[in-house]
Amino acid sequence: MAYVPDWLRETVETRANGLCEYCQSAKLIITYMTVDHIRPEAQGGLTTEDNLCLCCIGCNSFKRDFTTGIDPELGVEIPLYNPRSQNWDDHFKWSEDSSVILPRTTTGEVTIQRLRMNRPDIIRSRQLWVSAGWHPPKR
Questions:
Q1: What does the domain layout of the chain look like in residue ranges?
Q2: Does the model's pTM come out above 0.85?
Q3: What are the phi and psi torsion angles at 78 (to 5°)?
């Protein structure tokens, strides 16, 4: 794992407004965030500002070194959502009660599936965060 200098880590966190750039969980709620290599180092990804994003430990643990997911209808590989080159709202939306991330596109669908962005524990947490007025995040 590459060393990410403190100044670069702070730049990534500030740019993300303290939110996981995949599932939108807030740093103030999720106590551990990491810096993710969008294109993994194992695939030649560099430790540069344009290849890094803020990521909660849950999304990071499921993303690992993957850059694609499988389209459930066609069975083909589709690139995962890239927070540096794509807009979150183009690929995802919140359910009516804001506890579930819903896909708008195939990219959104495979990213939700690969990163398990709607795990039962995170859905329960989002429901609590909504009742406390902490969710959905204001971006």
A1: 6-130
A2: yes
A3: -125, 135
